Amino acid sequence: MTAEPAEDFVQLLTPQGRRIEHPTFSYDGDEDAVRSALRQMVLARRFDTEATALQRKGELGLWASSLGQEAAQVGSAAVLRAPDEAVPSYREHAVALGLGVDPVDMLKTFRGTAMIDWDSRATRCHLYSFVIGTQTLHAVGMAMGMQRDGLVGNPDPADNGAAIVYFGDGATSQGDVSESFVFAASYKAPVVLFCQNNQWAISEPISLQSTIPLYRRSEGFGVPGVRVDGNDVLAVQAVTQWAMERARRGDGPTFIEAFTYRMGAHTTSDDPTKYRERAEEQSWRERDPIERVRLYLRDRDALDDAFENDLAAEADELAERVRAGCAALPEPRFEDLFANVYADTPAALAEQRAGYLAYEASFSDPEVSA
């Protein structure tokens, strides 16, 4: 079984949909904002479900599901604005969707038709990182650059920005992550280190990753840490808002541990039934991030069947567009493998490219084929 959260766990909305108070953090959004968060979580889950189905049908080579982690992602992304920068790993589908990344673009790498190529300048959502933990160093470097570009600590809050980087509990065992904490603390970098503790690093439970709650590990680096209910979208937004504002002011980094759960497999190549108990999974289904928001809004008569029906129709339209878009992705061209390696292609690489293309063309020559 997974560990239970600490007593200072930040929660504003219980699994039963009841609002509670916290002495430090509060959510200041209205019911329209909560409905918007519900919409984003539902659409993100439908996209994730559709991508998983596409992989099962052989349309994708692999998929890393975000099932169950929608609140952690939607809540944290909700507070981002220009000139903030988001640096994901490979599971932050709701973050990417929330920042305007086209869902079909998110499928390209998993289908093997292209490298990740969405416009990170326009969306402020940087490209997925598949090497565990490396993106934390990238984000700290970006934050230090923002610091030196005068985007931190200005009198007008609108002129300030910060970076937020996403990683999992398994990544905290990587040296790159520890190094990122060192640099972030030493230079008071404007960065929020956002860990989605989904309890399992593939088949390794969090109890083998850390003997103390993860959020407390940041104290050794001089970085304040907060543990929040990662299935509570209101609490996640409140805590992330505080941490981002702190970074933008120039007060330095913050580590957020979003205590959540990976309800699906690590990726579609994984079988969690070999290492997880059904009772554990069931206990987390009862903390579903989407259902608790529904319960809250229904209890306040702020959610009706018309909204739910419209949302279901929107989710169906998204799924249809994803299916069609995936099938229509163009096959990669062999020569493009050489195109983006150098700004000015060296002669040796150009010669190698010509040789490979000639070899490829030989297969269409009837005399050579014979």
Q: In a few lines, what is going on in this structure?
A:
The protein has helices at 31-56, 70-77, 93-98, 103-111, 120-123, 134-148, 175-186, 206-209, 214-217, 233-249, 278-285, 289-299, 305-328, 347-362, 366-369; strands spanning 85-87, 163-168, 191-197, 200-201, 204-205, 225-229, 254-259. By secondary structure, it is an alpha/beta fold. Helix 1 (31-56) runs antiparallel to helix 12 (289-299), helix 1 (31-56) packs parallel to helix 13 and helix 2 packs parallel to helix 10.
Walk me through this protein's architecture:
The protein is of the alpha/beta class and 370 residues long. It is built from 15 helices and seven strands. The strands form two sheets. The protein has a five-stranded parallel sheet, with helices on both faces. A two-stranded antiparallel ribbon has the order 4-5. The model has no long low-confidence stretch (mean pLDDT 94).
List keywords for this structure.
370 residues, alpha/beta, Rossmann fold, five-stranded parallel sheet, two-stranded antiparallel ribbon, 15 helices, 7 strands
**Structural class label:** alpha/beta
Strand content: 5-15%
Annotation, overall tally of beta strands: 7
Q: Strand order, main sheet: write it out.
A: 1-2-3-7-6
Summed up, the domain count is 2
Radius of gyration: 22 Å
Report helical residue fraction: 40-55%
Give the topology, please.
Blueprint: H1 31-56, H2 70-77, E1 85-87, H3 93-98, H4 103-111, H5 120-123, H6 134-148, E2 163-168, H7 175-186, E3 191-197, E4 200-201, E5 204-205, H8 206-209, H9 214-217, E6 225-229, H10 233-249, E7 254-259, H11 278-285, H12 289-299, H13 305-328, H14 347-362, H15 366-369
Parallel strand pairs: 1-2, 2-3, 3-7, 6-7
Antiparallel strand pairs: 4-5
